[in-house]
């Protein structure tokens, strides 16, 4: 090829590079702090609490200092039947998410509604409290401090709860265990839609730290996994040993998150389990060994709660 063509190529490359740099530099900047929180952002803040990364309050990433998400079907104060409601319980001393403690996280309208109708200004970390996510008549989502507005105390709500999810603690384990090496929490604006569901919007992330988007994807996106697979039994088996439900899975086993004892208080003997599983894998047994049900304060339970809450 003649020298001339090389020269044209070089010039064209230079022009394209310059144009792209100019666009990058002069593109009007987008002020992310001006974005209003969506309902999803409010739910996430109240589910996960303050940041779930390496910090002074939970240096070993054990899922400490986190709220509990509960579902209610009766009013914890009066006992009257109510529509199924999610509530977020912060025991005294649990750190609040930034949205509750900083004025510029929720977005102007959401902040105003949360402060006036929701009375969040009355809440304090020392006293703890119970929060709800509500939607105003004009579609503005806001946070309600139910301890002030309805007299729902931490103890009463925990007692009245149908289910308790340790999803906030579970997110910390998602970070610690490095699930994000393989899984993303970020469906893309491509045909991803069809498999993994709606991509997030900017306002979904107000106050969330870290966002756990993932590095690159070697496994299914999990942002909405709880919507397509809500089986606690499946999750329990899959985390204990993914090969029980997906014969050729590359996902590691997380059986060590079960700790020493199962839900009934029986000792868990991983060596004996393995031995039986190997016999099953070799075809000497018809059924695989049973997977222990995780204890209610085990790390396995936290992680499963987190995953099932990704709706
Ligand atoms: C080495 C890569 C890898 C790591 C690390 C990993 N996974 Fe997976 N995961 C997979 C693959 C591959 C699948 C697809 C199903 C299968 O093979 O088991 C999967 C499936 C899943 C599913 C079911 C997805 C669906 O679409 O139904 C969940 C939930 C899940 N993983 C959660 C986790 C969590 C939580 C962690 C961290 C504790 C984790 N995974 C760590 C590779 C991984």
What is the CA-CA span between the terminal residues? 57 Å
* Percent helix range: 25-40%
**What is the name of the CATH superfamily of the largest domain?**
Cytochrome c-like domain
Strand fraction band?
5-15%
CATH topology of the largest domain: Cytochrome Bc1 Complex, Chain D, domain 2
- What is the CATH-assigned architecture of the largest domain? Orthogonal Bundle
Name the CATH class of the largest domain.
Answer: Mainly Alpha
Which ligands accompany this protein?
A: heme C
Contiguous uncertain segments of 5+ residues: none
Morphology:
flat
Summed up, the helix count is: 12
Tell me the radius of gyration.
Answer: 24 Å
Estimate nothing, just give the exact number of structural domains.
Answer: 3
Write the element-wise H/E pattern from the N-terminal end onward. Answer: HHEEHHEEHHEHHHHHH
**SSE class:** alpha+beta
| Spatial sequence of strands, sheet with the most strands | 4-3-2-1-5
Main beta sheet, described?
A: 5 strands, antiparallel
Total strand count, please? 5
- What is the residue-mean pLDDT, rounded to a whole number? 95
